[in-house]
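User: Please predict the structure of the protein below. I'd like the answer in structure-token form so I can feed it into my own downstream comparison script.

Assistant: Understood. Taking the following sequence of 220 residues as input:
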Amino acid sequence: MAIIQFFIFCFLLLLAFMALCRIKTVEKMRGHAPGEFGKLLGLDRIPEVRCLSKKIEELSADDTAEKWITKKANILEEIEQYKSELSTVKAKIKITPKHITWDKLEEQDKFFHLLPGQKRLMDNVKMISYRAETAMANILKTPRVDMPAARRLLQDLYVTEADILPKPKEKLLIVRVHKASRPAANLALDQLFKELNSAKICYPGTDMRMNYVLARSDPG
């Protein structure tokens, strides 16, 4: 129903325009420009329309519009060129090998293996460290704590913050380790520290004996 009313309104509006312009048939409307109907209604006297018409005339007075069209065409051409270059680069990336062999490296980029003596030194350091960790893990090992759990406890100990408190008069170097979040871990560390302190190990290059304690314990 609304569509029918719309078409009736448009038809009546068309007849009104034809009467104002003294046009007798619909076919004769083809010879009249649409702008004439706007002038008939006084649209050309609206300030906004006059301002817009003035700007259009100013743009059309020189080659500004043609320059803008030319610039836009050049930009579009550059975009198409970049797209083509991008497609070429992507195709090269797909066929480029993901890895490069050692013999294809530049001379300044080639690296060499460790000398046999250096490798043996590193292997010995790793072996000593592993054996020391195994010895400490055996101290922490209990019926409730197996070897993997003891090693995890030691790994947490390696990254735990600690305070170093030297006491030269007493020839002591207190290493006060911050306690763990679990009471069971603190008990295990207490046992480990007792064993380490009983060894009476001096800090290298000094006569200061290292003494390990937890932060909650008396550092003296």
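That's the full token string. The longest strand covers residues 162-167.
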